[in-house]
Amino acid sequence: MRLRMLVWPLVLLLTTPVIALAGAKKTPTPRPIGGLTFSDSYQLTVVNIDAFVTDKKGNPIEGLTKDDFKIYQDGTEREITNFVEYTHDVYRTLFATPTPGLEVPKPTPTPGPGEVSRADIKPIFMMIYVDNLNLRPLDRNRVLRQLREFVRDNLQPPMQMMVVRFDRSLKIVQPFTTDPGEVQNALRSMRMSTGGRKTRDNDRRDVIDMMRKAQDQENASGSGITGTQGNYGRAYQLMKSYANEEANNLAFTIGSLREAISMLAGLPGRKSILYVSDGLQMIPGIDLFYEYSSIYHDTSILSLTTRYDRTDLFKSLVSSASSQGVAFYTVGAQGLQVVGSGTAESRYAQDPLSSTVGTSSYNDSLHYMADSTGGRAIVNTNNFSAGFKTIGHDLYNYYSLGYSLTSAGQDKIHTIKVELTNHPEYTLRYRRRFVEKSRESQVQDRVMASLITPVDDNPMDIDIATGTPSPATNEWWTVPLHISFPLDKVALLPEGHDYVGRVIVFVAARDPDGKQSDIQRQEHEVRIPAADYDAAKKQRFGVDLSMLMASGTYRVGVGLLDEVTQQASYQTVATSVAPTR
């Protein structure tokens, strides 16, 4: 199977709107009208990098100043123009609910320039991602019990959490909320669901047992382990079959994680994914290759590690996450591992080297995802509460370092390096790159984000109306969509005897199961005779689209971008297509 990112096509048919205009006898001299004031200028952007500083025990370090840090973009040092230290005390004080008769204590002073106000606080979004495809049920439930305590202790304004699960497709269990009870209930609802790792563990153990059994039989017969070509070939084929299946599952998983990143990309503020899994192998089946080599004395088999190496998938994943400002906090639910021992279901102990390689391979990927995006990894431990405590520190204790960037107006990836020059004894973490996004990319990200959480940003007063669906085929329905906005919200430039503006419409849709369309883009020209503008500006301009959807309920997100002013507006609407008959 392939990951179904596009689950229904959107056909956008842009029709020419009809606007009743009052005619005028005299044509005035055209001038720029409507929309926001604009001029030729360059855009100055402040890039903010969050830096986490801890001691050797993982405790946050407070009290550093701007002079303790240096920041580099693409190898060139940049001046730190914005510097703020955030602490848990500051968050608690600024967002505390006042109790009548009690004075709210003032926060502990921080050494940033100026006082931190509530307006300075960025929103915090955390997606709890439970990877059922790569989890054993017992491991998952053990972690979720302690994860619920983490939610109770840390979910407070300005933070929001959502819960998703992955079973070969990504499903939203709980949309973003500030209610700890809703998140805890969503985590409890997963206790009885199956986990895909258990089945694959059995398959893997069967391959090892077959190898070891053949070894016993052939050694007992005196023919030697390489004496029977049938067992040799059968083991090879079973091993490759297992590695192929693992590689296929890994492709599904990485694709789903990339989808999760895209869901968060358009959200403002700090974003993270708390990823719960029994780990992923960057080289699927690597422990079996070492087991085979040990039993059959065939080191050439290790060349398969190159064929099955999926490191590039992980590099692409963390590059995407880091560029979008999404940090991974990874949890190895398998806990503390004892290598080289057998299990109750198996007669044979695994070769110590292959067992060590296998255990490390599952943990290495979790370390890599976290380390490359400025997050943390909780692996090879049964004390998840201690690990969750360190993640809690990250949510509310960090330094925000800002520097000025003259925007290039296009998508561009920049590498980041931060140095803590005066304190080599401390550990420093931060994201290693960011994407300088074009305005169109920013709007597309916000539209995708609007499918999972409200985006209250509609300065152009756009409105969406859905029409009655009509059958297109036995499985698909055509759904009319009408998008309108006041003409005086769009910038119009003189062109001959007309005033002309140009807008870009972006549309995407998502169903409750998490399946969503690709974003669709359409350009449209707004042309008004200069003589008719006074009458036209009192009316709404309409764009008609047609969407092709399967039956179900959907959330439709729309973004409108004025090409001249670069102003954008967002709106969503719910629609139901062909209810069950």
Verbal overview:
With 581 residues, the protein is of the alpha+beta class. The chain folds into 3 domains: 1-43 and 439-581, Immunoglobulins (Immunoglobulin-like, Sandwich); 44-121 and 397-406, no CATH class; 124-395, Rossmann fold, CATH 3.40.50.410. The chain is built from 12 helices and 23 strands. Strands 7-6-5-8-9-10 form a 6-stranded mixed β-sheet, sandwiched between helices. α6 (286-296) runs antiparallel to α9 (352-371). The longest helix is centred in the middle third of the chain and has 37 residues, at 229-265. It starts with 43 loop residues before the first strand and ends with a strand.
Write the layout of secondary structure elements.
Elements: E1 44-54, E2 69-73, E3 76-78, E4 82-86, H1 88-94, E5 124-131, H2 137-154, E6 159-166, E7 170-177, H3 180-188, H4 196-221, H5 229-265, E8 270-277, H6 286-296, H7 304-307, H8 311-323, E9 326-332, H9 352-371, E10 377-378, H10 384-396, E11 398-406, E12 412-420, E13 427-429, E14 433-436, H11 439-450, E15 463-466, E16 470-471, E17 476-486, E18 493-495, E19 498-510, E20 520-529, H12 533-536, E21 540-550, E22 552-562, E23 568-577
Parallel strand pairs: 5-6, 5-8, 8-9, 9-10
Antiparallel strand pairs: 1-11, 1-13, 2-3, 2-12, 4-11, 6-7, 12-14, 15-17, 16-17, 17-21, 18-19, 19-20, 19-22, 22-23
Helix pairs in contact: 2-3, 2-10, 4-5, 4-6, 5-6, 5-8, 5-11, 6-9
Give the overall shape: globular
Radius of gyration: 28 Å
* Terminal residue distance: 30 Å
Q: How does the helix and strand content classify structurally?
A: alpha+beta
Uncertain segments are 1-28, 36-42, 99-114, 341-345
**CATH C-level name of the largest domain:** Alpha Beta
